[in-house]
Design brief:
The protein is built from 18 helices and 18 strands. It is α/β, with parallel strands linked by helices.
């Protein structure tokens, strides 16, 4: 699913109006009726409902939704902000007239000045926030700021239309959250926005749901994009069913350089991630102290001993492996850093993509010159802390994403920036957000399993840019499955690994899972 900026959405909407032969007001009518249906599915008719409508497009949506809700038996109290008495856009003015003509003026209060008595929002009340949407391009100030802060202080249940009022959706960094509506649910129109995937905005959007808007398919297909949301239908193009005549020789051989004294569990988890991801053979290269641990914990994996007793001191490829992963639990000993440095220079000369995770990234942050030797199309899998150690401290999730885009483009690498909505950043500047997974994945070793899964997919012939999309999605789905069995707090990384095969199988089933479109009952 493509993710567009406000300007791109406006262009798509105008194309849609021409293609469908309708005007702006008919479009507003269609959207408002859809919003009313969504709100009615969430809010009981007997519940007190307060609608705040702004003077522009979002206010028109809110007024139209309120008009349709009255038809359904609701009795909303509607407040329309027309500060100064002449600030309504023509479309908002027209929707106001339609509301009054159909239902009279008793349900609607038009506010021409910001000195007015706010309604009591205590108790069982739901607020429909239609003050400002994506048409707003300046931060909230003055009286509107007081209104928003009052709503937040009263803490009613809030349903925001398009975006919470006060949020500048195309400038998602540096906003002051207390000056933005804190919604329980945001009804996004047709497509998601980048702001939905930024950690700092989670308390603003609450849960969010994409409500259907009949944008032109032609316009959506033709429109350029920079951001995209991964869907399971994408997986069906990336992961092929297993050939019934396949042997392990057909499924690739991965090598994983992992583990050190006290961190051998990382090697175990990465190996299990690769095996559960379908690799034909996996070799774990670890220090000598890992022999008994790996041979007993992961008997399906082969063990290759390093010369070092407690840390990896030599990184060489003894076979023509189909994929190479480095990092889980290797530590940051000087000898390990030297070995990684030498290996990266050789791999760069051979232009061989690698998977670099965990301590491999920490080693590079200690010796930043190694960044210059990372082979093109290698996959880096940092979480926020690892990324900041590598590329400089970032003030926010969005700033970190922008930095990742620059780094991926400059160094021609793929960055999997891990988080609730893991961002896969490609060298061409395209960013894919992964929706699968949950807080159950906030468990030690989860990233090591992902590294193993990446190695498995690469070993089976998947290109790096495709493996970087498929592995986080499958890994997240496995985490969801593990939580169903173990509970959100009880999931371990091994549980995630054990569910990878089942998660891959779901790619070929017919039913799509719903991951964000929750429907809470108010």
């Amino acid at each position: 699913m493509k993710i567009f900026s406000s300007d791109e959405i406006r262009a798509i909407k105008q194309f849609t109006l021409r293609e469908q032969g309708i005007n702006e007001r008919q479009f507003i009518e269609n959207v408002g009726e859809t919003l009313a249906y969504e709100i009615a599915a969430l809010v009981a008719p007997e519940r007190r409902l307060v609608v705040f409508a702004g003077p522009d497009l979002n206010g028109a949506y809110a007024l139209t939704a309120a008009r349709h809700l009255v038809r359904k038996g609701y009795k909303p109290t509607v407040y329309l902000f027309n500060v100064g008495g002449n600030k309504l856009s023509p479309d908002c003015g027209a929707t106001k007239d339609m509301f009054v003509e159909e239902h009279g003026a008793s349900l609607l209060t038009e506010i021409s000045g910001l000195q007015f008595s706010m309604p009591d929002l205590g108790g069982d009340v739901t607020v429909v926030d239609g003050i400002f949407g994506t048409e707003r391009i300046k931060p909230i100030s003055g009286g509107y700021m007081s209104i928003i802060q009052y709503i937040n202080e009263m803490k009613p249940q809030v349903i925001s239309i398009e975006v919470p009022s006060g949020l500048l959706v195309d400038s998602v960094d540096g906003m002051i959250n207390r000056n933005i509506i804190h919604a329980d649910l945001t009804l996004a129109l047709g497509v998601p926005r980048v702001a939905f995937f930024i950690k700092e905005n989670a308390e603003l959007f609450g849960k969010w749901k994409i409500v259907p808007v009949e944008y032109s398919k032609t316009a959506l297909d033709r429109a350029p994009w920079k951001f995209r949301l991964i869907e399971r239908s994408d997986m069906r193009h990336l992961i092929s069913p297993r050939d019934p005549f396949a042997t392990k020789a057909d499924c690739g051989h991965a090598v994983i350089f992992a583990g050190s004294y006290g961190m051998l569990g990382a090697a175990v988890l990465a190996a299990n991630g690769a095996l559960r991801g379908g690799v034909g053979k996996v070799t774990v290269h670890a220090p000598r102290c890992g022999f008994y641990v790996l041979q007993t914990s992961v008997p399906c994996a082969m063990f290759e001993s390093d010369q070092g007793d407690i840390a990896i001191t030599d990184i060489e490829l003894t076979r023509n492996y189909n994929s190479v992963a480095l990092g889980p639990g290797i530590g940051t000993a000087d000898a390990t850093i030297d070995a990684l440095d030498a290996f990266l220079k050789l791999a760069n000369a051979n232009s061989r993509p690698l998977i670099l995770d965990a301590d491999a990234l920490n080693c590079i942050s200690i010796r930043p010159s190694m960044l210059n030797h990372i082979p093109v199309m290698s996959i880096l899998t940092p979480h926020a802390g690892e990324f900041d150690r590598l590329f400089g401290k970032q003030p926010s999730t969005y700033a970190r994403l922008l930095r990742a885009i620059d780094v991926a483009r400059q160094r021609h690498i793929i960055i999997i920036l891990k988080g609730r909505f893991t961002a896969i950043v490609r060298p061409d500047g395209k960013v894919y957000f992964n929706p699968s997974g949950s807080a159950a994945l906030a468990t030690p070793g989860s990233g090591d399993v992902l590294t193993g899964l990446l190695a498995a997919f690469l070993a089976q012939g998947m290109l790096p840019e495709f493996a970087a999309l498929a592995a986080p999605y499958i890994h997240g789905l496995a985490g969801e499955m593990a939580a169903e069995c173990r509970g959100m707090f009880g999931v371990t990384a091994m549980d995630v690994a054990d569910n990878l095969g089942r998660a891959i199988d779901t790619v070929f089933s017919d039913t799509d899972s719903q991951f964000i479109t929750h429907s809470p009952q108010y």
